[in-house]
Structures
1.
Amino acid sequence: MATGDFDVHYVAHLARLKLCPEEERQISDQMGDILGYIEKLKEVDVSGVEPTAHPFPLVNVTRPDVSRPSLPHEDALRNAPQKAGGLFTVPKIVE
């Protein structure tokens, strides 16, 4: 998409935004700058760069999955505002 092909009025309409003419001009200028910068980035040779999803490796920090005793049933229900049949009762939110 070339810089001049960006239609701020059309995109604002799709986003249900009401922009005054000054805001449209300002956003159009800003988007023109952004799209121009993207065109400049397309000129960079990245043939030797391996694609990545993140700039740094991500590692999940997890604890070992060890079985251990849980909270006693009576303790879990002790402060329940409502309970019935040994279970928490909650208001119905879905018909």
2.
Amino acid sequence: MKNNALIIGIVASVCFFLAAAVFGFAYYQSKKPAKTVSVVGMAQKDFTSDLIVWRFSFSTQDNNMKESYAQLKDEISIVKNFLEKEGITAKEMDFQPISTSEVTEYRWDEVTRRSVETFSGYNSKQTVTVTSNDIDKIEKVIRKISELYDQNILIDSWNPEYYYTKLSDLKIEMLAAASQNAKERAEAVTKNAGSSLGKLKSANMGVFQITAPNSADEDYTWGGAFNTSSKEKRATINTKLTYFVE
């Protein structure tokens, strides 16, 4: 009887020890840091803008404010006719509100021997914004705008700005490409290490950059470059993926 009790006690002790060992090992495994691999993938694509924005202005000046405004109204009519003749529709052109301001200049006063601010007239200014998806058409008009000089209209033209209206779709497309590139890199790393790639742990998108192709004067920025001066553009995006390693 005593021997049976002794055997039962020994078996119970062994079972308790094994259970404790299994529990301890499981706890150790749960606290053990999982093996992971982090890689950065990149995607790059060249594309052509599909929207152009062009701004220009012209002005008149006269000692009489009403006369300055009247002269500008005449020039506005001439400019509108020119734009319409070149195929620019009313929807594509936006004439901003006319601004009129006093013009002063400093002249040297021989009597007081100092520079004195004097009134020299009223300046009335008109700014025009042309927005169109027909880039070729607008570029041709920009080259011909000097024809208005023959009618004594001095045009102050800004450089055109180029945009892409499907940027959201492009961003999604490139993000998928960058993620695929990162996954392929991760697979290569784990394969060379004799392991296999597990599930995705985390994904972080990098900065979306738009620059002019082959431009040495343009640098990437932390906030993301956004080129508007070049019709031809290059988009670049990167993403960081972290995978579990099995």
3.
Amino acid sequence: MTHALIREVREADREAIRNVVAHAFGQAGEADLVDRLVADGDDVLELVAERDGRIVGHVLFSRLGVETANRSFQAVALAPVAVDMEYRGQGVGSVMIEEAHRRLRLAGEALSVVLGDPAYYGRFGYSHERAAGFSSDYQGYALQALAWSDAPATGRLVYAAAFSAI
């Protein structure tokens, strides 16, 4: 694994983050999503991986609502996670996600949802079975959830407005 410093984002990192995310996805859509989530104040936790003074990875968790018949519940959505092509397969993404999970649990977050490859995100404890009871525009096998404590297993997932633009 590549040794990288995992830290919270600084304002001076914005251009480097945009470049890493756009290159990792081969398009600007996810980079635009990051910019909009941050501009709208919907970011809950945002970390970067830095190596030799260079940003090589980025992960963002945004606010996600869960609406049930009786109440609303706050959760987080993992999206996106990006690693510079040169550093892929070296554990950078895993270290960022694990550190983010640690911080989110300490902050009292109870539920995280992700839309992605089950083989990858399953390594972190995400599962479709945990997300199957939620209604969502993104419901399907790739919708997965991870609960750290008592959290609803049903309800409507309400993503930040920025997601409707992608």
